[in-house]
Amino acid sequence: MVLWIGLLCLVGLVLIVFEIKHKGQTTQVGSVLETQAAPQSIEGFNRASGPIPLNFPADHGPHPDYQTEWWYFTGNLEAADGRHFGYQLTFFRRALAPPNETTPRPSEWATNQAYLAHFALTDVSDERYQAFERLERGAASLAGAQAEPFQVWLDDWKVMETQPGLYQIEAAEGVIQLKLNLTDRKGPILQGDQGYSQKGPDPGNASYYVSLPS
Prior knowledge:
There is one protein chain. The chain is mostly beta strands and 214 residues long. The chain has a single domain, classed as AttH-like domain (AttH-like fold), CATH 2.40.370.10. The protein has strands at residues 10-22, 25-36, 68-78, 84-95, 113-123, 128-137, 143-146, 151-154, 157-163, 166-173, 176-183, 189-190, 196-198, 206-208, 210-211. Strands 6-5-4-3-2-1-11-10-9-8-7 form an 11-stranded antiparallel beta sheet, with no helix packed on it. A two-stranded antiparallel ribbon has the order 12-15. It starts with 9 loop residues before the first strand and ends with a strand.
């Protein structure tokens, strides 16, 4: 399965790639954290303008100084009966206002963060593709992300670090269910210039991109 996601203005990216075991088979899974600022409302948000130090595991977590970021996991799986599947699970975080323009409120429902999740599964043998989306506020434990231990979730869709280097993915919609254990096998590789990857000629049209291939 190939999924294309296009953005106009990228301002930060972190890529993690894992090797997983699924019913006796080895497959590759990718997870991406990407931050973006929309050109019409970037005032008050950070943008990628050059190389910066990237520190892990802290930079696996959310970056509220950036307007938009996402974490995504994709992979190809082979079941015990030989059937092939492709999957994708993505979590987006969108800031509704810059941190310095947010007024604290006492309600547990108060937030300036919105989360969107997208879950898709391709059954190659049946030539069937199914996709689902959810939207929640980043408050009242409905959706959120954290760095240590890493976790990102929306309702009961989630990716969490169960112990150092070990991660679990869970997502379900009706009879469509995904539950995987992932292992980070190698250290980070910085893409571009020390992790800074220019996407276009204008300032801020860039991303911070780090991969951990298995």
